[in-house]
């Protein structure tokens, strides 16, 4: 490999990343139907020709954005788990972390893709497997973070109910700022979890 090719490859990777990040921003701000390749290339500061070189169609762009979102969501959660406190408030901190994740712009962008994938077979074929992977990883991280023993009867279901709860609260947050209600519900649920998992 020649030294002149390395900068070009780095530029190409950086351009792809700008396009993917711009796609996520557009999904959050304008939804799936309002996201276009033209709008993404403008937001990324990339020429239309360069955008078409990397992602010839909207579906190509969105499928790549799905994979990018999956990596972002995993990295965000792993980083948040690393700084969780220990001790008596740990469960509450885990629920706050999950609540924040499911109320984040990254989750909003993923939600836009879920809704669009419901009626788009090509998009569903990309979104479905990646969401299964994200779901398994979030479940695993949650089990480890709260110290749940899934060999005990009902614990797996309790963890899944917790994830369904925070996901639902995140969905409610897309309509209006639901942070105060979410805090109250998660405070109560932390007590339930601590009692049930003791």
Cα separation of the termini:
58 Å
The share of residues in extended strands comes to under 5%
Q: Strand-and-helix sequence, N→C?
A: HHHHHHHHH
Contiguous helical run count: 9
Low-confidence stretches: none
Helix content: over 70%
- Quick one: overall form? elongated
Q: How many β-strands, per DSSP?
A: 0
Which radius of gyration do the C-alpha atoms yield? 19 Å
Reported for the largest beta sheet, the result is: none
Structural class: mainly alpha
Q: Main attributes?
A:
elongated; 198 residues
Explain briefly what this protein structure is:
The protein is mostly helical and 198 residues long. Helices cover 79% and strands 0% of the residues.
Explain how this protein is built:
The chain is mainly alpha-helical. It has nine helices and no strands. It has helices at 5-30, 37-44, 48-54, 58-82, 90-102, 105-117, 121-146, 155-173, 179-197. Helix 5 crosses helix 8 and helix 5 crosses helix 9.
Give the arrangement of secondary structure elements:
Elements: H1 5-30, H2 37-44, H3 48-54, H4 58-82, H5 90-102, H6 105-117, H7 121-146, H8 155-173, H9 179-197
């Amino acid at each position: 490999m020649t030294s002149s090719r390395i900068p070009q490859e780095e530029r190409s990777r950086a351009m792809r990343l700008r396009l993917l990040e711009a796609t996520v921003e557009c999904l959050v701000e304008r939804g799936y139907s309002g996201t276009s390749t033209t709008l993404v290339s403008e937001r990324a500061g990339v020429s239309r020709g360069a955008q078409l070189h990397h992602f010839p169609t909207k579906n190509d762009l969105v499928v790549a954005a799905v994979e990018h979102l999956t990596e972002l969501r995993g990295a965000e959660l792993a980083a948040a788990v690393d700084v969780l406190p220990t001790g008596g408030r740990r469960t509450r901190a885990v629920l706050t972390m999950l609540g924040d994740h499911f109320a984040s712009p990254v989750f909003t962008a993923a939600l836009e893709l879920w809704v669009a994938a419901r009626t788009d077979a090509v998009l569903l074929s990309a979104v479905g497997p990646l969401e299964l992977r994200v779901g398994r990883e979030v479940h695993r991280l949650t089990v480890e973070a709260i110290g749940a023993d899934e060999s005990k009867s009902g614990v797996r279901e309790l963890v899944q109910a917790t994830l369904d709860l925070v996901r639902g609260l995140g969905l409610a947050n897309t309509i209006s700022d639901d942070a105060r209600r979410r805090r109250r519900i998660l405070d109560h649920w932390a007590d339930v979890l601590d009692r049930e998992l003791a």
